Amino acid sequence: MKPPEFIAEMAAPAYRARLQLGIWSGYGVALGFGVLAAAASALDLTPWRTAYVVLVGAKLVTCTLAWLGLARNRAVLATQALNSTADVVLITAAIYFTGGPYSPLVATYVIIIAVLAMLANLGVTIVAASGIVLAFAVMVLGMAAGILDPTPVPGHPGTLPSYGYAITSIAYCAFVVGVPAWFASATLRTLRKKEQALELRTAQLVQANTQRSQFVASMTHELRTPIHGVQGLADVIAAGVYGPVTDKQKEACASIKRSAQQLLGLVDDVLNLARAEAGRIEARPSAVDIAALVERVTASVSWMVGTKNVKVDSVVEPELPVVRSDDRWLAHVLVNLVSNAVKFTPEGGTVTVRAVERPERDAVVLAVEDTGIGIAPEQRARIFEPFRQGDDRSDEKGYGGVGLGLALVAKLTDLLGASVELDSEVGKGSTFRVIVPVDWRGRQVSRLMRAVVTPPGIG
Amino acid sequence: MKKILVVEDDPVNQMILVDFLAANGYQTSAASTGPEGIERFELDAPDLCLVDVQLPRKSGFELVREIKGRGARVPVVLMSAVYNEPDQSTRTIALGALADGYLTKPFDLALLLSTVRQLLGEA
After folding, report:
1. Torsion region of A456: left, alpha or beta (phi above 0 gives left; psi -120 to 50 gives alpha)
2. A459 touches chain B (CB under 8 A)
């Protein structure tokens, strides 16, 4: 028979220390009862019964069984269940021998509930509470039906209590209140410690995040500055500032600038991805003219393609609706998809950017079609992961790169509330489709969030 | 001949700006830090200043405020390599700091030239 989950959970290592504590408290409660019973008998408040010794003795036995079970890691749940059942049975018996429903010991049940609530879980506590009510009902109904003989209540109810009775009942009261109070305070202390540890950890994380943001910001500046230098120098040389330049030299300057631009794009992608993963890029929706965007992107990618013989075409459906999106990020998505397509298209191939309205008229589809190597179905999921390309051996096939572009596309389309679809046939080509909703469906980072994460003093 | 002061800490970028402006018929002087920029401003009395935002010891923002605080009517253009700024906060701060223009690096040299000509009333 398989025990329910909340009981099985109690055998987990995390509960070991608590079970051990429960066993110690079991010994304590049994001995406490023994002392109380001896005192009550000595003070002649209740007749001495051999049953008291049997009850305390039985509890000591079940405690020891539970201890051994835990120590040898055998039958842990069974011995613990036996020990808990013993608690209920023995306390009910003690209540019976001291007057049944009239017994002052009824309050002792609270100890069981308090200990279980602190040491075990909710399910176990509920089961124990039901067990207690059941045991009490059996005893009281047994007495009402005449099966169990009535027993006298300790002392002499209705008369002045003797000092002996007063002292014993004070000790009992302290016992019943003290045990749960001790468990509650122990639990609260543990919780407080955990809370402090959590607060400290949170503070450390916030600090680490701030440091990271500052690092990324200064890295950005340091990485980009020399690239600007390279581009600027290529520009001034080509402009003839340092003397007459030949056409060949101008061409070389253009190549230098292109290479620098590629490097800059890579640096930007790394940083954008880092920001996107930290949830730190923000979209600013505005009315986007898709035709103008496509023209801008194809022009800049054609420039980047340089000497590679790949044609970049664009086909834009007339009268496209104006979409609400983030112009810059959408352009970034398209640039990444088109340069990706160019990269995986062999010489003489064509990359076509197509913009059409979706038949449902609620979105514009930006499709990037290539005549490249294609992507096998089993590779399609992972190309959107950072630092992965479709084929991990693509390096050997001459397609370098770190696989950042599509990972960023995935992050950015998510930000924009857009989605990406992929159709591909190995050897024939691939089509990436970005579905851009006409109405803004993207996310915006709240101002507060940005205030927390934006490092001060970047210029 | 109009004089332009370039305040830029990166030596290569400084050289590019100085050489390009000189080739386009401007007299140029250059400084690499904020305090040096103020010093050159006093000595050379330029007609326009090109100031990088991120400068050692004194930021470009402070420099603009100081130059403008002297009642000088010299146009100042701030430049920054702050990357990818969707909300353009540096531009806003730059113009809030009374700069007359703002350029994001890397900028087109043609754009630089047209900005300079416009501010000098030559366009």
Report:
1. beta
2. yes
Which of A23, A421, A330, A36 minimizes the C-alpha distance to B86? A330
**C-alpha dist (Å) from residue A448 to A66, A209, A443, A445:** 54, 15, 15, 8
Please, are residues B20 and B4 in contact by the beta-carbon 8 Å criterion? no
Contact of A114 with A68, CB cutoff 8 Å: no
Global pTM value: 0.53
For residue A411, the chain B residues in CB contact (below 8 A) are none
pLDDT tens for each residue of B77-111 = 988 876 555 445 666 666 666 788 888 777 778 88
A398-423 confidence digits (pLDDT tens): 454 556 778 888 888 888 888 888 88
Chain B residues 8-47 within an 8 A CB cutoff of chain A: 10, 12-13, 16-17, 19-20, 22-23
Q: In the prediction, which pLDDT does B53 show?
A: 84
Output the pLDDT for position B82.
Answer: 64
Task: Output the pLDDT for position B22.
Answer: 93
pLDDT at position A1 is 63
Q: Minimal Cα distance from A219: which residue of B?
A: B83
- Among B79, B105, B112, which would you mutate to test the A interface (most chain A Cβ atoms within 10 Å of its Cβ)? B105
Contact status, residue A338 vs residue A312, Cβ threshold 8 Å: yes
Give the model's pLDDT for residue A244.
92
Residue of B nearest to A257 (CA): B106
Please tell me if residue A9 touches chain B, with a CB cutoff of 8 Å.
Answer: no
CB contact under 8 A, A239 and B20: yes
Mutate to test the interface with A, among B6, B16, B53, B55 (most CBs of A within 10 A): B16
What the block records as the tokens of A63 is: 């405690």
Phi, psi of B67 (to 5 degrees): -60, -45
Least confident of A137-141, A206-210, A286-290: A206-210
The interface predicted TM-score of the complex, written ipTM, equals 0.79
Q: Chain A residues with CB inside 8 Å of B10's CB?
A: 225, 228-229
**Which chain A residue lies closest to B21 (C-alpha atoms)?**
A241
Residue B92: per-residue pLDDT = 65
CB neighbour burial string for A276-289, b if at least 16 within 10 angstroms, e if fewer: beeebbbbebeebe
CB contact under 8 A, A225 and B81: yes
CA-CA distance, A357 to A360, in Å (whole number)? 8
Distance in angstroms (rounded) separating the CA atoms of residues A426 and A430: 8
